[in-house]
Amino acid sequence: MTNNINSSNNSLNEEIKNKLEKQQKQKDQKLIIVVMGVSGSGKTTIGKAIASSLGCGFNDADEFHSEANKEKMRSGIPLNDDDRKPWLSSINKRMIEFLNNDNEEANDHVFTCSALKSIYRDQLSNGINKDNLLFILLQGTKQLLSERLQIRKDHFFNPTLLDSQLSTLELPTQSELSNHHYAFIDISNSVDDIVDEIFNYLK
Protein backbone atom coordinates (compact mmCIF):
# COMPACT_ATOMS: atom_id res chain seq x y z
CA MET A 1 0.00 0.00 0.00
CA THR A 2 2.84 2.37 0.97
CA ASN A 3 4.64 1.61 -2.28
CA ASN A 4 1.51 2.48 -4.26
CA ILE A 5 1.14 5.81 -2.43
CA ASN A 6 4.81 6.67 -3.00
CA SER A 7 4.53 5.73 -6.66
CA SER A 8 1.41 7.89 -7.01
CA ASN A 9 3.13 10.82 -5.29
CA ASN A 10 6.18 10.48 -7.50
CA SER A 11 4.03 10.52 -10.62
CA LEU A 12 2.15 13.59 -9.37
CA ASN A 13 5.39 15.38 -8.51
CA GLU A 14 6.79 14.60 -11.95
CA GLU A 15 3.63 15.92 -13.60
CA ILE A 16 3.78 19.15 -11.58
CA LYS A 17 7.48 19.50 -12.40
CA ASN A 18 6.79 19.10 -16.12
CA LYS A 19 4.00 21.69 -16.00
CA LEU A 20 6.21 24.19 -14.17
CA GLU A 21 9.05 23.65 -16.63
CA LYS A 22 6.65 24.17 -19.54
CA GLN A 23 5.27 27.37 -18.00
CA GLN A 24 8.80 28.68 -17.38
CA LYS A 25 9.82 27.84 -20.93
CA GLN A 26 6.80 29.72 -22.30
CA LYS A 27 7.61 32.66 -20.03
CA ASP A 28 11.26 32.74 -21.15
CA GLN A 29 10.55 32.17 -24.85
CA LYS A 30 11.56 35.07 -27.00
CA LEU A 31 9.03 36.66 -29.33
CA ILE A 32 9.59 38.82 -32.38
CA ILE A 33 6.62 40.96 -33.35
CA VAL A 34 6.55 42.19 -36.95
CA VAL A 35 4.10 45.03 -37.54
CA MET A 36 3.39 44.91 -41.26
CA GLY A 37 1.26 46.62 -43.90
CA VAL A 38 1.45 49.21 -46.66
CA SER A 39 2.77 52.72 -46.10
CA GLY A 40 0.37 54.90 -44.15
CA SER A 41 -1.00 52.03 -42.09
CA GLY A 42 0.78 53.27 -38.96
CA LYS A 43 3.48 50.62 -38.61
CA THR A 44 5.99 52.86 -36.85
CA THR A 45 3.44 54.47 -34.53
CA ILE A 46 1.90 51.13 -33.53
CA GLY A 47 5.26 49.37 -33.36
CA LYS A 48 6.73 51.97 -31.01
CA ALA A 49 3.59 51.88 -28.86
CA ILE A 50 3.81 48.09 -28.52
CA ALA A 51 7.54 48.23 -27.71
CA SER A 52 6.93 50.94 -25.12
CA SER A 53 4.18 48.89 -23.45
CA LEU A 54 6.33 45.76 -23.44
CA GLY A 55 9.47 47.61 -22.38
CA CYS A 56 11.40 46.02 -25.23
CA GLY A 57 13.53 46.93 -28.24
CA PHE A 58 12.28 48.37 -31.51
CA ASN A 59 13.62 48.50 -35.06
CA ASP A 60 11.97 50.28 -37.97
CA ALA A 61 12.46 48.67 -41.38
CA ASP A 62 13.53 52.04 -42.80
CA GLU A 63 16.77 51.69 -40.80
CA PHE A 64 17.79 48.81 -43.05
CA HIS A 65 17.07 50.42 -46.44
CA SER A 66 20.01 51.40 -48.62
CA GLU A 67 20.31 55.00 -49.77
CA ALA A 68 19.63 53.75 -53.32
CA ASN A 69 16.29 52.28 -52.19
CA LYS A 70 15.34 55.46 -50.37
CA GLU A 71 16.16 57.56 -53.41
CA LYS A 72 14.02 55.35 -55.67
CA MET A 73 11.03 55.70 -53.36
CA ARG A 74 11.62 59.42 -52.95
CA SER A 75 11.46 59.68 -56.74
CA GLY A 76 8.22 57.70 -56.91
CA ILE A 77 9.83 54.56 -58.33
CA PRO A 78 8.53 51.30 -56.81
CA LEU A 79 11.09 48.88 -55.40
CA ASN A 80 11.38 45.50 -57.09
CA ASP A 81 12.21 42.11 -55.61
CA ASP A 82 15.94 42.59 -56.21
CA ASP A 83 15.86 45.93 -54.38
CA ARG A 84 14.13 44.37 -51.40
CA LYS A 85 16.19 41.18 -51.10
CA PRO A 86 19.24 42.64 -49.26
CA TRP A 87 16.93 44.83 -47.18
CA LEU A 88 14.89 41.85 -45.99
CA SER A 89 18.06 39.86 -45.42
CA SER A 90 19.40 42.61 -43.13
CA ILE A 91 16.20 42.62 -41.08
CA ASN A 92 16.24 38.81 -40.80
CA LYS A 93 19.88 38.95 -39.67
CA ARG A 94 18.96 41.39 -36.87
CA MET A 95 16.07 39.12 -35.83
CA ILE A 96 18.37 36.11 -35.60
CA GLU A 97 20.86 38.16 -33.58
CA PHE A 98 18.12 39.03 -31.09
CA LEU A 99 17.02 35.41 -30.71
CA ASN A 100 20.58 34.17 -30.24
CA ASN A 101 21.69 36.90 -27.83
CA ASP A 102 21.22 35.73 -24.24
CA ASN A 103 22.23 39.19 -23.01
CA GLU A 104 19.09 40.88 -24.38
CA GLU A 105 17.27 42.57 -21.50
CA ALA A 106 13.79 41.77 -22.87
CA ASN A 107 12.23 38.59 -24.23
CA ASP A 108 10.39 40.53 -26.93
CA HIS A 109 11.47 42.75 -29.81
CA VAL A 110 9.31 44.72 -32.23
CA PHE A 111 10.12 45.25 -35.90
CA THR A 112 8.21 47.06 -38.61
CA CYS A 113 8.27 45.95 -42.22
CA SER A 114 5.82 46.29 -45.09
CA ALA A 115 6.32 42.55 -45.84
CA LEU A 116 3.96 42.89 -48.78
CA LYS A 117 4.54 39.54 -50.50
CA SER A 118 4.55 35.97 -49.28
CA ILE A 119 8.15 35.54 -50.48
CA TYR A 120 9.18 38.60 -48.45
CA ARG A 121 7.67 37.11 -45.32
CA ASP A 122 9.48 33.85 -46.10
CA GLN A 123 12.74 35.80 -46.24
CA LEU A 124 11.99 37.55 -42.96
CA SER A 125 11.10 34.32 -41.16
CA ASN A 126 13.98 32.25 -42.55
CA GLY A 127 15.58 30.26 -39.76
CA ILE A 128 13.05 31.42 -37.14
CA ASN A 129 10.75 29.06 -35.25
CA LYS A 130 7.02 29.60 -35.73
CA ASP A 131 6.43 30.28 -32.03
CA ASN A 132 9.15 32.96 -31.93
CA LEU A 133 7.42 35.14 -34.52
CA LEU A 134 4.13 37.02 -34.79
CA PHE A 135 3.05 38.99 -37.86
CA ILE A 136 0.57 41.80 -37.21
CA LEU A 137 -1.10 43.01 -40.41
CA LEU A 138 -2.47 46.55 -40.20
CA GLN A 139 -5.38 47.01 -42.59
CA GLY A 140 -7.35 50.07 -43.67
CA THR A 141 -9.22 51.60 -46.60
CA LYS A 142 -7.33 53.23 -49.45
CA GLN A 143 -8.94 56.56 -48.58
CA LEU A 144 -7.70 56.46 -44.98
CA LEU A 145 -4.22 55.37 -46.05
CA SER A 146 -4.04 58.13 -48.65
CA GLU A 147 -5.18 60.78 -46.17
CA ARG A 148 -2.48 59.73 -43.73
CA LEU A 149 0.24 59.82 -46.37
CA GLN A 150 -0.75 63.29 -47.53
CA ILE A 151 -0.23 64.76 -44.05
CA ARG A 152 2.94 62.82 -43.26
CA LYS A 153 6.04 65.00 -43.18
CA ASP A 154 9.79 64.37 -43.46
CA HIS A 155 9.57 60.89 -44.93
CA PHE A 156 11.23 59.67 -48.12
CA PHE A 157 8.21 57.59 -49.23
CA ASN A 158 6.37 59.21 -52.14
CA PRO A 159 2.57 59.04 -51.56
CA THR A 160 2.07 58.26 -55.26
CA LEU A 161 3.48 54.77 -54.54
CA LEU A 162 0.44 53.76 -52.47
CA ASP A 163 -1.36 52.20 -55.45
CA SER A 164 1.74 50.15 -56.24
CA GLN A 165 1.97 48.88 -52.67
CA LEU A 166 -1.72 47.99 -52.52
CA SER A 167 -1.46 46.03 -55.78
CA THR A 168 1.69 44.27 -54.53
CA LEU A 169 0.23 43.32 -51.13
CA GLU A 170 -0.52 39.62 -50.86
CA LEU A 171 -2.73 38.54 -48.00
CA PRO A 172 -1.41 35.51 -46.11
CA THR A 173 -2.29 32.22 -47.77
CA GLN A 174 -3.81 29.29 -45.90
CA SER A 175 -0.36 27.71 -45.88
CA GLU A 176 1.14 30.82 -44.29
CA LEU A 177 -1.59 30.91 -41.66
CA SER A 178 -0.67 27.33 -40.78
CA ASN A 179 3.07 27.98 -40.68
CA HIS A 180 3.10 31.38 -38.93
CA HIS A 181 1.13 33.29 -36.32
CA TYR A 182 -0.90 36.24 -37.68
CA ALA A 183 -3.11 38.94 -36.20
CA PHE A 184 -5.25 41.21 -38.41
CA ILE A 185 -5.86 44.72 -37.11
CA ASP A 186 -8.23 47.48 -38.29
CA ILE A 187 -6.31 50.79 -38.31
CA SER A 188 -9.45 52.94 -38.08
CA ASN A 189 -9.37 52.48 -34.31
CA SER A 190 -7.26 54.61 -31.95
CA VAL A 191 -3.65 53.70 -31.22
CA ASP A 192 -4.57 52.75 -27.63
CA ASP A 193 -7.41 50.51 -28.82
CA ILE A 194 -5.14 48.86 -31.40
CA VAL A 195 -2.45 48.18 -28.82
CA ASP A 196 -5.07 46.76 -26.41
CA GLU A 197 -6.35 44.48 -29.18
CA ILE A 198 -2.83 43.25 -29.90
CA PHE A 199 -2.16 42.60 -26.20
CA ASN A 200 -5.39 40.61 -25.97
CA TYR A 201 -4.05 38.47 -28.81
CA LEU A 202 -0.73 37.99 -26.99
CA LYS A 203 -2.38 36.69 -23.80
Give a written overview of the molecule.
The chain has 203 residues and is an alpha/beta fold. It is built from 9 helices and 5 strands. The protein has helices at residues 2-28, 43-54, 67-74, 81-100, 118-125, 142-151, 162-168, 174-179, 191-202, and strands at residues 31-36, 57-59, 108-112, 133-139, 181-186. Strands 2-3-1-4-5 form a 5-stranded parallel sheet, with helices on both faces. α2 crosses α9 (191-202) and α4 (81-100) runs parallel beside α5. It is globular.
Walk me through the topology.
Blueprint: H1 2-28, E1 31-36, H2 43-54, E2 57-59, H3 67-74, H4 81-100, E3 108-112, H5 118-125, E4 133-139, H6 142-151, H7 162-168, H8 174-179, E5 181-186, H9 191-202
Parallel strand pairs: 1-3, 1-4, 2-3, 4-5
Give a brief outline of the structure.
The protein is an alpha/beta fold and 203 residues long. Helices cover 54% and strands 13% of the residues.
Number of helices: 9
Percent of residues in helices comes to 40-55%
Content-based structural category: alpha/beta
What is the beta-strand fraction? 5-15%
Tell me how many strands there are: 5
Q: Specify the biggest β-sheet.
A: 5 strands, parallel
Radius of gyration: 21 Å
Main sheet strand line-up: 2-3-1-4-5
Shape, please?
A: globular
Mean of residue pLDDT values: 85
Q: What is the H/E string? A: HEHEHHEHEHHHEH
Low-confidence runs of at least 5 consecutive residues: 19-27
Distance between the termini: 44 Å
Characteristics:
203 residues; alpha/beta; 5 strands; 54% helix
